[in-house]
Specification:
Strand order of the largest sheet of chain B: 5-6-7-3-8-9
Structural class of chain A: mainly alpha
Strand content of chain A: under 5%
Largest sheet of chain A: none
Radius of gyration of chain A: 19 Å
Distance between the termini of chain A: 39 Å
Largest sheet of chain B: 6 strands, mixed
CATH class of chain A: Mainly Alpha
CATH topology of chain A: ABC transporter involved in vitamin B12 uptake, BtuC
Low-confidence stretches of chain B: none
CATH topology of the largest domain in chain B: Rossmann fold
Shape of chain B: globular
Mean pLDDT of chain A: 82
Helix content of chain A: over 70%
Structural class of chain B: alpha/beta
Oligomer: heterodimer
CATH architecture of the largest domain in chain B: 3-Layer(aba) Sandwich
Helix content of chain B: 25-40%
CATH superfamily of chain A: ABC transporter involved in vitamin B12 uptake, BtuC
Number of helices of chain A: 13
Number of strands of chain A: 0
CATH class of the largest domain in chain B: Alpha Beta
CATH architecture of chain A: Orthogonal Bundle
Order of helices and strands of chain A: HHHHHHHHHHHHH
Mean pLDDT of chain B: 83
Distance between the termini of chain B: 41 Å
Shape of chain A: globular
Low-confidence stretches of chain A: none
Order of helices and strands of chain B: EEEHEEHHHHHEHEHEEHH
Strand content of chain B: 25-35%
Chain lengths: 284, 237
């Protein structure tokens, strides 16, 4: 036990490890809050689609050698999020197909661009780390960390301020519109927050695993809790705990960060699912 | 006191009119039932009344200080709602949302209003229960309580008894009639002609255009009303 602590202490003496932990926890917190809304609105796959768009945009950014690729990735992803959430509202099949189309399209073009205009000798390692986020999180600069803290703060403040509106729009859009509330504006807010979180989360778990970060905590919380607020809070707690556990385990066992966090989420989901299966009906 | 006046309105999309020649008025305390086949433009009419979709021609005016935002709407349930993890209280309270404006949280007055409406519909004991664990009839009461938080003047109900068992249907009709007697105007879109003629004070029957508007008694003696009631009676055996 003491050995583990010495090892952790040693690792946490490096600033980049501390950065990774801060950023990881913030991203986990934001994505889990949003996940509840996305899962309930039947938009679970939007995270996947958008993260592939972000991957494509990142490839383009590295081809044109932008010093700060966020400048391109962020606007492109936000724009796609707005378009996808807008088309996906009434026409279910169309929305599904649109997500699938944009997501694989961006993935293919991104990979092709990285191969046509290679920036480094080892393309497959580059691609792998973008997709699975294995090393990206350990290469964060202080600027990245502050950017992440700033964006998380924006997301959290928006969530608290718009909590009741988000609930109403998620539960019943037609009713919300009928009472004269501008539901479209709040859908837009949700779309923008989604895109922000996905761009942030790419650093942590890579673009292939973002969906897991968004949906697992929400699904786990829904096994046991029966009120919207309860689900939200539980989902946030699960996500933060799993992210912390995942990062620490990955340091100790030298496993990839992203997949370790997602594995922790899966374990929690299974536990919650078993509890709900055994207790039958859960408490309110 | 008139609340809604619809004059020669035509509804639909730019490339096609769904229903037209709509001429009717809704007055305070009315119980108006809107009848029509599937595809006759009932849902388009709902959207127009709620002010979500402007009419193509004609006029829909709200009079005597009434506005389309004061209509408490009870939409048809979506699959998303049936397994939504939210407590009854959270849902009823969300009816007060339009009163909050830019204020991020509900104040004591709105919480009191939500409580009052839960009491009124007899769902106080369900306050902490989860919406998806309720029966269909209980769910509709929750949504009615929410609509009442949004308005005290008019309720617009879109096929409220769909999917309920006959007993629960009857309960809901009685509850709506009670709300109507307490002074709330009711507009109900329905398939159920026998209950429509039992409870409503006015009938609006639409097809590609308006087929009938008037009091219930006139409808029952009119040609279209008689034939519609007869076919329904035959279908029900």
């Amino acid at each position: 036990m003491a050995e583990i602590f010495t090892k952790l202490q040693y690792y946490f003496s490096f600033p980049f490890v501390r950065y990774a932990l801060i950023v990881g926890l913030l991203i986990a917190l934001c994505s889990s809050l949003l996940g509840v809304t996305l899962v309930l609105k039947r938009f679970s796959f939007i995270g996947d689609g958008l993260s592939h768009v972000a991957f494509g945009a990142m490839a383009v950014a590295s081809v044109v050698r932008l010093t700060n690729n966020m400048l391109l990735v962020l606007p492109v992803t936000v724009l796609s999020a707005v378009l996808l959430l807008r088309t996906g509202q009434n026409t279910k099949i169309k929305g599904d197909a649109a997500v699938a189309m944009i997501s694989v399209g961006a993935l293919a073009i991104g990979y092709m661009l990285m191969n046509l205009f290679p920036n480094s000798a080892n393309i497959s390692a580059d691609v792998c780390s973008t997709l699975f986020g294995s090393t990206l999180i350990l290469t964060l600069t202080p600027f990245d960390v502050w950017l992440c803290i700033g964006m998380s703060a924006v997301v959290l403040v928006m969530f608290v301020l718009f909590y009741n509106k988000i609930f109403s729009v998620t539960f019943d859009e037609s009713f919300t519109k009928a009472t004269g509330v501008n539901a479209d504006a709040y859908n837009l807010v949700i779309a923008i927050i989604t895109a922000l979180i996905i761009v942030l989360a790419m650093n942590l778990v890579g673009s292939l695993l973002i969906s897991a970060l968004i949906i697992f905590p929400a699904l786990s919380a829904m096994r046991l809790f029966r009120s919207f607020r309860g689900v939200m809070i539980c989902s946030a707690v699960i996500s933060v705990v799993c992210a912390a556990a995942g990062i620490i385990i990955s340091i100790l066992a030298s496993t990839p960060v992203g997949s370790t966090i997602v594995s922790a989420d899966i374990v929690v989901f299974l536990v919650f699912w078993l509890i709900s299966a055994f207790t039958g009906r859960a408490k309110a | 006191m008139e609340q809604i006046i619809c004059k020669d309105a035509a509804l639909g999309y730019e490339d096609g009119i769904v229903t037209e020649e709509l001429n009717f008025t809704v007055s305070s305390g009315d119980y108006l039932c809107i009848l029509g086949e599937n595809g006759s433009g009932k849902s388009t009419l709902i959207k127009a009344l709620l002010g979500l979709k402007p009419q193509v021609r004609g006029e829909i005016t709200y009079t005597n200080g009434f506005s389309s935002k004061e209509i408490g709407y009870l939409p048809q349930q979506t699959p998303v709602q049936r397994d939504f993890p939210a407590s009854v209280r959270e849902i009823v309270l969300s009816g007060c949302l339009s009163k909050t404006g830019f204020r991020p949280f509900y104040n004591a007055k709105e919480k009191e209003l939500a409580h009052k409406n839960m009491h009124r519909l007899g769902i106080c004991d369900l306050e902490k229960r989860c919406y998806r664990d309720l029966s269909g009839g209980q769910q509709q009461r929750v949504l009615l309580a929410r609509a009442l938080c949004a308005t005290e003047k008019m309720l617009l109900l879109d096929e409220p008894v769909t999917g309920l068992d006959p007993h629960a249907q009857n309960d809901l009709y009685e509850l709506i009639a009670k709300l109507n007697k307490s002074g709330i105007t009711i507009i109900m879109v329905s398939h159920d002609i026998s209950s429509a003629v039992k409870y409503a004070s006015h009938i609006l029957h639409i097809g590609r255009k308006q087929l009938f508007f008037g009091s219930k008694n006139d409808y029952m003696t009119s040609k279209i009303g008689r034939s519609f009631i007869e076919t329904e009676a035959q279908e029900n055996g």
